[in-house]
Design brief:
eight-stranded parallel sheet; 10 helices; two-stranded antiparallel ribbon; alpha/beta
Amino acid sequence: MTKLTKLTDTYTLSNGVKIPIVGFGTWQTPDGDVAEASVKAALDAGYRHIDTATVYGNEVGVGLGLKASGVPREDIFLTTKLWNTDRGYHQTLAAMDKSLLALGVDYVDLYLIHWPNPAAHRDDWQTLNADTWRAMEAILKSGKARAIGVSNFRQHHLDELFKTADVKPMVNQIFLNPSDRQAELTAYNTAHGMLNEGYSPLGTGKIFGVEALQQLAERYHKSVAQVVLRWSLQHGFVPLPKSVHSDRIQQNADLFDFELDDDAMALIDGLHGVAGLAKDPDTREF
């Protein structure tokens, strides 16, 4: 495992772009003052990796938080995602421009296809993904995104995408926490040069009620969140913890003065299903 010492340490994506090892998530963060304040608090706490999405409805607030922080744009790694209703070649190009306008930036560092199989395209998702990915490659070439990737894609979705892609995705952002570490998929992603990013790294809060994790937290004199985020880092995942409370935002960044031993890692690895599993992207109703 690479030695991790601080929040701004980075991994290198397949195209050479550096990505900070911990991101700050904004799913379910309301737009406006709350989004602006939480993003500013994260940047004040030392985060340099901010994750949002068109469907979150908070790109404007996230962009205001970036500006309010005073941190230079080039020092921030910013991700947003393409929503299901904007899929296809021309629609994707237009959606990128709309996101840039909402965020108030000239480029994003990472642009992701949010879901592989929209409900309206169950019969032609392979073609839809191929056309969308062609636009993603054009966006990459234009410089409007420094890296491109996918989210919630499983192996069969990726196998199809690789048939027509000129550039492979650099990231696959998936539901990833001790309750579902998706071992086969993460291994597949790694084998194909994709970094594993984990949304809901704390299991949307359910993880806090797991007694085994509470006992580990007590043993390490850390919070359950810190133990679980450290587990994610030691697996080489990029966790995206989310909070709107400045004290928790700071606490979730305090991950570098301890290391989980092999027994602790094995125990956490064995918690499959304790806080829910990844949803099947082929049956989602959107």
